[in-house]
Design the sequence.
């Protein structure tokens, strides 16, 4: 990846951001990065420097940050290859840490609009930083961006999905919409299969199931921003 290629990607990202109601997901494949992703392990430190330089020129530029996140997220998907990870262990660890770094650059307390916050929630969940996601839900409530009913429903949906996603085969599809209230049909399908998550209907007492969920969500169940 050279500077010219990166600038082309950023330009494409600007068009994507302008035309869509919601920010594009960092898993998007609309920008063709395949050639640059192939064989990047041998020169990853150089690629990282190019991404950092572009972001440093304009830290508030969402398009530049989106390109960095998009590139790193798609690169991390390659880590599912155990042979590749064994050969490039240090580089793989570096990609994971860099993805977390770029996602955490946006301070939850400085975000003001629902569109951006919803996008940041999805990004936080992509790295399983559920405490950060919870702070972003707090921010939505603190700013009054949704009605109380919608805000509580969204937070409840978040807790539900965080608990059950690891045992649900459609977790990637649902995770990308974890900040979207309009997913009732997927939630109904999960509800029908709760028994596969360890909730055998004829054996597990409701009290045991409730306590298990509370334990799973206890570290991010309470608002973390001042009211």
Sequence:
């Amino acid at each position: 990846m050279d500077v010219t290629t990166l600038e082309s990607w950023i330009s494409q990202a600007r068009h994507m951001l302008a035309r869509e109601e919601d920010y594009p997901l960092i898993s998007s494949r609309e920008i063709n990065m395949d050639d640059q992703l192939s064989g990047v392990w041998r020169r990853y430190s150089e690629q990282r420097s190019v991404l950092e330089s572009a972001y440093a020129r304009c830290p508030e530029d969402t398009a530049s940050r989106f390109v960095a996140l998009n590139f790193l997220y798609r690169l991390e998907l390659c880590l599912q290859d155990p042979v590749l990870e064994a050969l490039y262990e240090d580089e793989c660890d570096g990609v994971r840490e860099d993805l977390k770094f770029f996602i955490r650059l946006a301070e939850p307390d400085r975000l003001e609009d629902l569109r951006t916050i919803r996008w940041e929630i999805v990004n936080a969940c992509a790295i399983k930083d559920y405490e950060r996601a919870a702070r972003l839900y707090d921010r939505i409530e603190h700013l009054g961006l949704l009605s109380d009913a919608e805000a509580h429903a969204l937070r409840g949906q978040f807790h539900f999905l965080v608990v059950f996603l690891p045992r649900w085969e459609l977790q990637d599809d649902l995770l990308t919409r974890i900040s979207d209230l309009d997913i009732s049909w997927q939630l109904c399908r999960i509800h029908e299969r709760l028994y596969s998550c360890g909730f055998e209907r004829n054996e597990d007492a409701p009290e045991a199931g409730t306590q298990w969920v509370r334990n799973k969500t206890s570290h991010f169940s309470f608002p973390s921003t001042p009211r």
